[in-house]
Write a structure and sequence with these properties.
Helix content of chain A: 40-55%
Strand content of chain A: 5-15%
Largest interface: A-B, 38 and 31 residues
Distance between the termini of chain A: 39 Å
Structural class of chain A: alpha/beta
Oligomer: homotetramer
Largest sheet of chain A: 8 strands, parallel
Shape of chain A: globular
Number of strands of chain A: 10
Strand order of the largest sheet of chain A: 3-10-9-8-7-6-5-4
Chain lengths: 353, 353, 353, 353
Amino acid sequence: MDLEQIFAVDEFEELARAAMDPGAFAYYYGGAEQEITLRENIAAFDRYRLRPRVLRGLSEVDTGSTLLDAEVSLPIGLAPTALHKLAHPDGECAVARAAGKYGALQIVATYSSYTLEEVAEAASGPLWFQLYMNADRSITEDLISRAGEAGYGAIVLTVDLATPGYRTREYRNWFVPPPEVGPANFTVGEGAIHSSVSELVANLTGDGYSWSIVEWLRELTELPIVLKGIMTAEDAALALEHGADALIVSNHGGRQLDRSPASIDVLGEVVEAVEGQIEVYLDGGIRRGTDVLIARALGARAVFIGRPYLWGLAAAGADGVARVLDILQTQLVNGMLNLGVASLDEVTREHLA
Amino acid sequence: MDLEQIFAVDEFEELARAAMDPGAFAYYYGGAEQEITLRENIAAFDRYRLRPRVLRGLSEVDTGSTLLDAEVSLPIGLAPTALHKLAHPDGECAVARAAGKYGALQIVATYSSYTLEEVAEAASGPLWFQLYMNADRSITEDLISRAGEAGYGAIVLTVDLATPGYRTREYRNWFVPPPEVGPANFTVGEGAIHSSVSELVANLTGDGYSWSIVEWLRELTELPIVLKGIMTAEDAALALEHGADALIVSNHGGRQLDRSPASIDVLGEVVEAVEGQIEVYLDGGIRRGTDVLIARALGARAVFIGRPYLWGLAAAGADGVARVLDILQTQLVNGMLNLGVASLDEVTREHLA
Amino acid sequence: MDLEQIFAVDEFEELARAAMDPGAFAYYYGGAEQEITLRENIAAFDRYRLRPRVLRGLSEVDTGSTLLDAEVSLPIGLAPTALHKLAHPDGECAVARAAGKYGALQIVATYSSYTLEEVAEAASGPLWFQLYMNADRSITEDLISRAGEAGYGAIVLTVDLATPGYRTREYRNWFVPPPEVGPANFTVGEGAIHSSVSELVANLTGDGYSWSIVEWLRELTELPIVLKGIMTAEDAALALEHGADALIVSNHGGRQLDRSPASIDVLGEVVEAVEGQIEVYLDGGIRRGTDVLIARALGARAVFIGRPYLWGLAAAGADGVARVLDILQTQLVNGMLNLGVASLDEVTREHLA
Amino acid sequence: MDLEQIFAVDEFEELARAAMDPGAFAYYYGGAEQEITLRENIAAFDRYRLRPRVLRGLSEVDTGSTLLDAEVSLPIGLAPTALHKLAHPDGECAVARAAGKYGALQIVATYSSYTLEEVAEAASGPLWFQLYMNADRSITEDLISRAGEAGYGAIVLTVDLATPGYRTREYRNWFVPPPEVGPANFTVGEGAIHSSVSELVANLTGDGYSWSIVEWLRELTELPIVLKGIMTAEDAALALEHGADALIVSNHGGRQLDRSPASIDVLGEVVEAVEGQIEVYLDGGIRRGTDVLIARALGARAVFIGRPYLWGLAAAGADGVARVLDILQTQLVNGMLNLGVASLDEVTREHLA
């Protein structure tokens, strides 16, 4: 495979399909119910238009930014996704190596195939830790403590999983992951034995979580707390009230409530609701450089990709992830030059038609 | 057939097509003229978006409700459809058994393949009786009296059949049902001999009905009267005026006036017109759990399904109908958890984007 | 061919394609440039929705109306189209026989294959005469005089042919009609020898016509003058000013200016402009009964069909045209019953969503 | 090839594809990233509707206009495109001969396959010179001086190429043009050796250009300065401020910033911003006569075509380009007659629905 001959991240999807177990591929690929939201996440971007400005005297542009305290070279991070060994034996460590090469922030999942410490070892860029609460809270406390010690810069609490969505495609492609894919961060008790990945998540994660968890977390750690899965102005306001340090606008890649809006379509209302008090990021549907500019114009400080890097990982390990980031970086630089902005801070709502 | 391997009610359509006489299938499947309204009933739902709320502290949800006096476990009832033996020898009795298992309300049709008493015998859940006026009013009076004695909880008068619609597909797939499919509730006179189902309905039902029928019915029975087929605010107001106890917003599954709006698209205006004085239900296009949530958000107390359960019945009898209800229940529970509502009463217009 | 097994007028299109010379078919079928307006005429109707009213006490409905002084049983007339022998040897006479059977008004074209007197002989229903000005005005004067004598009830002046449109499909299917198809109403001079139908029309019709023609016509005849081809409020106002007795909203079946709006989409502005002072009709895209109801709701007193009856004529002569009218009549009656109107006058804007 | 049997300029695309090297074809054909803007340029025209006026007394129409000082017979010019020998050995000279025949203005590119003097020699119509700044400004100064001496009537500065767009299709069809295709206007230095056309442009053109270039140009030449690539009201205002003599609304044929709006969709805002002080033209998506009328109605004094004439050139040299212009002229004349305008100045916003 000549990675240099790949010029769009979409191309990795078919390579990954060929490389992966069909059940594992379906698990990553699929969304909830009819996958309306899954498709909308991508399609919605095609309804936005960018207004290019000319003769701006640009020779080069700066794609750098900060996410909370982390300095990044790209406003494109790697969203948390489970069990990377399903895609490639090098799993999250390969992702970490690629992310580091491009100065991109990686969010490592609670249900990772490598321990959070192993990933930290492989990483040279900033890391955040994604948290699913465990039915056994002592496990959660342990994870948070270890994340802090391993140098993770924030806790990203996933708030949109009251239960795993109704994932038709996963049900139709029933898949029991082999034990060696993990999760690695803790021992899975007998009571949480799983047959599918969603069942594992359901069994381990427990339920009944409310806003009080945010307060509980705040007591437990001094790390910034990022809430992932906010889709409404109302919940953004509640997040502010409960002391969240940042938000990720996300519908969980279309995997939770089908018929949720595309995340890009609600970004504006969330940004407006937080009134600049905390940072807002977005995931869902990012596939090319101009997507990043649209999200930025609507107020997202950064975006995160999920499936695109998983496909890169499945196709070619760390090199595949690196090529995904390389393409997006090149497209972003090109887009900034042709939009007429020297830095991300120059991108505003006036750049949207 | 492993019903457990079916995860979306749409899948039953092809199974039914394979199991049924093509003419009978076309009769159930088809709509009026170009079937624009038939398709719109389903497509319209895809234009609505649900706004998921997070961290609502939910462990479980309650899908129960009341429809007039009936307690139901699901806000998804079984709409009246004719001559169930066209789908399966067990007909309406099989539907009744499945409905009872899920605590769903069944509306039994005037033109049923089993007598209303036979269905009542098979049922364990609540039953309502759908009424087509007979040209011979003594037959109608007899039916209403028998329905009351058999424990039916309401009379559902179909008001949108001034004449059967122009059903192109039915005409192209001319089908004469065998005598044993019924109708069973009364003897069909010589003058109403039918060659197609629509002709039967046209011949038996008579015409010229006006709002005075509602008053005539009110005199005749103490059962609540539900009007099925209201599509405008104006007729909703007239229904109130004439003492209807509840309404079903319906375009008769796209079988009457083609180019009628999707029923979900007019639900709002009907709900607004009744100002909460009576209950409003909806049929037309319900295929998955999130459809129910959209209808509920727009003010429908419950929804009814038609073709989906007929396909289940044709494919696998009572078990097929049960699986249809099981899928919808599972999707509804999942949708409520991920929308962030503990009960149906919590679903509001604010849940729609 | 069992005409009784045809249930939608669209079906005649393929029958006509099989029956006709490909060049003649292309001449009838085609529109201007990319045929955007041709397709829009039909597609636009699919964006309108009818609001059905119920319990209106209807047993039957009245589809009758008057167009100027003519009493018609159907509000669906036959638009003027050229050289019917291209479709069938019985040409305009066959159309006249079918129209008479259904009480429909026929507009006979200047460029007809039978003389206007021959058509009048065959007709039992009302006739109007469509006029293209001839470069030789004495021919035009003669035609008007003969039309009056033959009992035609109005002159329908086509106003939208400054020159025949850029008809790509016609150019690609070059077709020289045989001499026997006509035109029959007058002798075609050497100077107007044609190779294609559009060239014939261009050569004979001349150019440079302005509103003064309407005044010239008014002097020449006491017959009502109907202007066919009005697409704007501005021209409707001018038509009033110049004493037109009625208008036909039409884009010439999409054959003149491509990217004109669908005629149904501008009907409203024309109706509003004439303020009820004269009658307004519509052609373009009528294919089924509910189309007629939509046009009526927007203010058209009647509609005219073109290609549908040509396809019927090509497929089966007078019987084919009759079946087209029969289908539309049946659909219209059905539509009126299910819309809840007893007569065409009851159809209003409130019937549109 | 019988050019007279071609009736739509789109048809030349497939002829050109067959005639050209696939890599060269891909270079011309392709757009940026996902080619959304490339497709939108064409698709956007299909959303506009023209309002035809009737009985305007037209016998003929005048398609003539002036562009700055140049008199043209057509408001359809030939946009600058690079290296015409990629399409045909006669290159820009063939284009000049065809343009002259139809009185159309040609803009010759800096990166032409023939020298600007050779093209001027072949031309009989008006010429403008498109300018890319050279990293070596003395080359630019020389080009401008030579253009003035050779009779070019204006300098058209391309302002929307901060860097060549991310051209996925070009990358996938890597193509190294043979040395004989040029560019011919100057010697390409060792430092600018290219492997693809975009690389050539990138290497030669340099970067960092700002509005001060316009002032520098103004000092250098008395020729009018036209800015090509303005897409916003803001940049139109800056262009006025910096003394531009005319603007071309253009997104570079969808080759620079993907997700830019269709050029026709922003024409209105640019026209409004310049308040009639300077002329505004448009390129992007012009494929037929009615496109020209839409652009004119929105305020464009003239339009330019790119790919259409390249396809004509590739298919049949000067004769192919001539046929493209002939078709557009015929469609334009036909469109004006059927829109009801005698001259281009009569086309106004009121002609749009």
